[in-house]
Every structure is written in C-alpha cells, then in structure tokens.
Amino acid sequence: MLEKTGLYLKLIGYIFRFINEELWRAARTSWGRKQARLFGPPAPESRDRNIVIVGASFAGNRVAQLLTTCLPPNSHYRVIVVEPNSHFQFSWVLPRLCVVEGHEHKAFIPYGGNVHDDPVGVLRWVRDRVADVTEKTVQLQNSGEIIPYEILVIATGSGVEKGLPSRVNDTDKRRGMELMQDMQQQIKKADTVVVVGGGAAGVEIATDAQNLYPGKKVILVHSREAVMNRFGKGLQKAALEGLEGLGVEVILRDRLVREASKPGMILLQSGREIQCDLVVDCTGQQPSSALVAQLSPSSISPSGHIRVKPTLQLLDEKLPNVYACGDVADTKTPNPNARAAMRQACVVAENVLLVAAGKRPRHRYENSWADGVIKLTLGLTKSITHYGDGKSELLFPGKETDEALMSAMCWSRMGQKPFEDPYMDSSKASCSTDRQAAV
Fold it and tell me: What residues form DSSP beta bridges with 249?
C-alpha cells in the first residue's frame, strides 16, 4: 500500500514538473524573441547554416517544432526537415484501424500544423528520403540533392519489414489507407485469425478482431511466458484476462516456425499445427539506423540502435555535431514510446540551441519511469492504463467510446482541425477529373 501511495506522489510530481518545463520553455521563447527584436542585430539576408533533421515522427517533428520556435529571429541557422511521408502517421491507432472500418484516414495527419516557417526562412521541409550521409552532407534519394549541414539530427525511428498493423510502410496517405482497408477485409473474411506476438499491437488487434467478430476463431501466439512481458505482473494478468474474456485462445511459450505441409496450415515450434485463413505478424520492430551505420559503424549497438551520450550526441567523438533521438537511439528506455521520444527531442533541441548560440551542449537525457505509461485497449470498449516503476504499478481501467481512440486529440496536438485534410480533397478532385476524362 505504501509503495502505491509513493507511486501516486511520484506521478503527481512528474505531471507538475512536465507542466513547469513547458511553461518555462514558452516564456523563455517569448522573451528571447522580444530581446532579439529590440536589442539584437538585424535579421540575416539568408540563413546559411543548416540544421538537418532526418525523420519527422514524434521525435523529429518535436525537434523541428522547438527549433523553429526558439531560434532567434536574427539567427543564421535554418532547419531543414527531410521526411518521406506525405503525412504524420499516428502509429498508436494502427492496430485498431486495421480492424474497424471507416476510420483509416484518421491515422494520417497533415504536417505543418505546429511546425511553421516563422520567421520566414527558418524552415525548409523536404519530402524525400536521405540516401547517404557524410561528415558534412546528406544526399537525397529522389532528387539527388546534396545538402550541407552543421548539425544533424537522426530521428528515423523503428520499422517493421512486414508493415501493418505496426507500421504502414508506404509514404502516401491514400496508398496507406488502401493497405489498411485491405487488412480490414482480410480480417473480416477470415474464419480463423492467428496473431503472432503478445506485445501491445498483438493484444490490441486480437481483442479488437474478436470483439468485432465474435463468431471468428482468434488465436494469439507469443514466445514468452506472459503477454505484455515487458510490463508489470498486474498488466500481464489484466491483458490475459481481457483476451480470454473475449474468447481469444492464447498460446504462450511457443512461436510460429513456418507454414505447414498442408495448405492453410501453420506449424508452431512445439509441433502443433493450426489451420487458419490469416496470419497477422506483430513482431520484429527494428531501429532504422542504416544511415548512421554507413557514417559511423562503431556507433551501432548489437541491437541495431545508435549509441549516444547522455547529451544524445553520437558516442563517436569524431561526430560531436550529430544527434539521435527516439526509437532509433540507444537510451536504454525500458518501454520506448512517443512520450520518451518527445522528451529526448526536447534534450536534443535544447542542446542544438546552445550550440547555435556558441555554447557547449549540457542538457542530458535520463529515463523516467513515468515515460513508460501505456494505455492498452482490450476490445472495442475497454482499456487499461498502466503506470509502473519496476517495484509497484498502478492500473486504471477505462471505457472507450470512440472507435478511432485518441485520433482527434493527436490531430489537435499536431495543430490540425480533426479531420480536415486538403490533401484528400485535392486527391478526390483529381480522381474525379480522371474519371471524366476517361468518359
């Protein structure tokens, strides 16, 4: 009981500290801009010192937001974001929206709502992919353009080779929606669905599918002794009860080996054969660190993450101007998520601002137990929120009333009105024009 009371107090302290940091950052930015306008030198004719950010998911977008907001109006530095996706992809809702129909567009949020070219010239947004990195430049894949940089931020996140339901693996919103609709139909048509992997994505898609289609046979296969094995015993128990309460068959301490000799059959390591119509793979997320592996092979850990100092600079002493944050960085974060990625982004941005002001980076990232909070859905209407510090845990059951979960909130936090997207309007107009031309 005392441990849980202590955890409540730590949680309250964490919330107050977070609010205080955000208020301090906003006040400092406002005062800094006023000082620059009143007493600083005039704005430069051009910003010729590039801060290149590779990737604009939770970490990269947050770094870009802070830098464009906090760089003085008269700074010579310019922020260049290189991001291949047409939209911000809200990966947390992907498992749900790969099951329920009619909401897939909500997982793709237009960029530009909270990252602005203000003052003019501070931001350049490039929709492309970085193909090569040297100690001084990045080269773009599609255009071939070579961009020099003074500071480089790697925020490429993690990926999954097989894509959905964990990652979209397509850069265009319309094509991503089509991939999600295809998975929805595959699940809808299948009589037996096998979900491989008992982490959050696996538990959520299994419970959603079983809840939406109670007549189906849904089987979850997980290689560990418990589902949600990276979390506390309380969440493991709640997740298992949620699965089995809906009718999902849970197979633990076993793994998928390959397709069996008979069509429509899969083989488990235990020797058990299962007849199924669809296998949904929820395993295998890997850090997307290939760019740094080219630049500095010694900076890649055995797990594939980028080795960093507490300041989130690369551990390689030859590259003090290169930073990494988010899922790709080796920060020993117990449960990597958007919250931890955005806190790392704040550390990177603060250090880059110091360097831009001619100072040494001094802000350090430390893992916080509160960053590991998770909200796990257990079917269409139930969820459980888990806080844990490794010694005790707090569980808060909840009711879900919105099939699209927190999509609207994420749109708002990205500075966009849910779910208005000019990109989709222009795409519809283009399709209509093409149909008329065909007639």
Answer: 219
**In whole angstroms, what is the distance from residue 119 CA to residue 70 CA?**
10
Contacts of 274 (CB under 8 A, 6+ apart): 192, 194, 219, 265, 266, 268
Tell how strand 49-54 and strand 151-154 pair up: parallel
CB atoms within 10 A of CB 354: 15
Distance CA 415, CA 110 (A): 9
Could you count the other beta carbons within 10 Å of the beta carbon of residue 389? 17
Gap between the Cα atoms of 308 and 223, Å rounded: 31
Rounded to 5 degrees, what angle do the CA atoms 72, 78, 81 make?
Answer: 125
Q: Which of 46, 229, 67 is nearest to 121 (CA)?
A: 46
Distance CA 366, CA 387 (A): 18
Are 147 and 54 in contact by the 8 Å Cβ rule? The answer is: no
Task: Return the half-sphere exposure (C-beta side, CA atoms, 13 A cut-off) of residue 432.
Answer: 6
Confidence at residue 363, expressed as pLDDT on a 0 to 100 scale: 97
C-alpha 199/C-alpha 165 separation (Å) is 12
Tokens representing residue 361 in the block = 């980076």
d(CA 232, CA 392): 8
Per DSSP, helices labelled H in 114-261 are 173-189, 200-212, 233-246
Spatial separation of the C-alpha atoms in residues 394 and 386, rounded to whole Å: 6
Residue whose structure tokens are 């008979």: 262
For 173, phi then psi, to 5°, come to -60, -50
Q: Are 129 and 117 in contact (CB under 8 A)?
A: no
Judge if the upstream peptide bond of residue 320 is cis by omega within 30 degrees of 0.
no
Q: What's this model's pTM, rounded to 2 decimal places?
A: 0.92
CB 97 within 8 A of CB 58: no
Cis geometry, peptide bond prior to residue 119 (ω within 30 degrees of 0): yes
Residue 262 to residue 320: CA distance in whole angstroms: 56
Determine the angle formed by the axes of helices 338-356 and 58-70, rounding to 10 degrees: 30
- Count Cβ atoms within 10 A of the Cβ of residue 287 and give its class: 0-12 exposed, 13-18 middle, 19 or more buried: buried
pLDDT digits (tens, 9 = 90+) for 122-160: 999 999 999 999 999 999 999 999 999 999 999 999 999
For residues 260 and 266, is the Cβ–Cβ distance under 8 A? yes
Reported as a single tens digit per residue, the pLDDT across 271-321 is 999 999 999 999 978 999 999 999 999 999 999 999 999 999 999 999 999
Write the CA distances from 365 to 26, 44, 268, 346, integer angstroms.
20, 33, 41, 9
Residue 410: burial class (beta carbons within 10 Å; 0-12, 13-18, 19+): buried
